[in-house]
Amino acid sequence: MLAHYLRLGLRSLRRNPILTVLMVLAIGVGVASSMTTYAVFRAVSGNPFPEKSAQLFAPQIDIWGPEARAQGQDLPDALTYTDTIALMREHKAKRQTAIYPVNFTLVPDSASSEPFAVSGYAASADFFPMFEVPFVYGGSWNAAQDEARAAVVVISEQLNQQLFGGANSIGRTVRLGDHDYEIVGVVANWNPRPRFYDVNNSNGFTDPPDFFLPFTRAVDIQTDTAGNNNCYGSAGRKPGYDGWLQSDCAWVSYWVELPDAHAAKAYRDYLEGYAADQTHAGRFHWPPSITLRNLTQWLDYEKVVPPEARISLLLSLGFLLVCLVNTIGLMLAKFMRRSAEIGVRRALGASRREIWAQFLAEAAMVGISGGVAGVLFTGVGVLSIGLVFEPDIARLAHINIALVGLTLLVAVTATLAAAFYPTWRASRVQPAWQLKSN
Q1: What is the residue extent of each domain of the chain?
Q2: Model's pTM, two decimal places?
Q3: Which residue numbers delimit the MacB-like periplasmic core domain (predicted)?
Q4: Does 287 sit behind a cis peptide bond, omega within 30 degrees of 0 on the bond before it?
């Protein structure tokens, strides 16, 4: 019977092509608008590291006090160099890394090649195992090289391709700024979106870094940060690079790996004790305050999902609702014009359940057609999303099998929901009235 009802529905759609086209377009456009914005929202709001997101934590320490809060300042989302070194020295976590962005000019070996700018990060050796960074060649430097401030570097696969044609470059040197660095590793194509470990310095959706070098080495050669440098309350600090390191300027991102809830609680207690010690030492003149957020909490705190993505998703869902309301009206007009046909079928013995099945099958045909149109419109929308969002975010949205399937499912489900009231009205047609009037 289902096949029969589908044939009846298809025949009915062909009988009223204008109404059919209007319904299909309403469903297609409404679904496409919501699926296009959903593609962006899904790309920017996903968990970039689900395997370990509950084990990775970013600590914050109140270095500015209640006066800063009264002026609208929150806890700094980075640490000072002083606090970073103190926490690194204690090593209370399973793994820990200090991170800050740096820029250099790379000078190629070939005299025929022009120097060019590269960007990367100064990090600790634990950065790579903590974040499970994959390698094409070699690996990371070790803790001893951190201590020795070794002139080593890990480069990206893209930079390796640019400099060495993709060959194994382990042991070769690359010149960054005024210094030569030995290549110890080549990172595979790794760029988590969002780049959770540095969202306080970027929107989290930029191109992958070109290189990584030891944090200790970058500080040793007095490399400035290429990221945020929040020096609230640091007026009157000593001049020069050493004065900056000793100041209360917050510029170092800091991450720790804590394998379970017990370890997280122990580390939180340690941070509270550290802040209390700073208060007792006279550095802080307020009750100690710290926070410890895991990866997903950190992304929420940093508001990584752009507000326009949330607003666009809500607006598109509202637009889909408007389209469904219009579809209800069109279906109601279409179904009630067939009251005579329904009356004859009821008089010949068709039950209300069979009327329901027939018209819902017809609505499903509309939904499938609207879903196909929605997939096409979604493709156009994804290609045009750069008109609304930043390029770094717009290029994350793409069509895949999952999005196509979801578009078809939403279209059919929404159409069947919209058909509920018109179908109920059609099933309530009284056959005696229709036979008398016709």
Answers
A1: 2-46+306-437, 63-257
A2: 0.75
A3: 20-222
A4: no
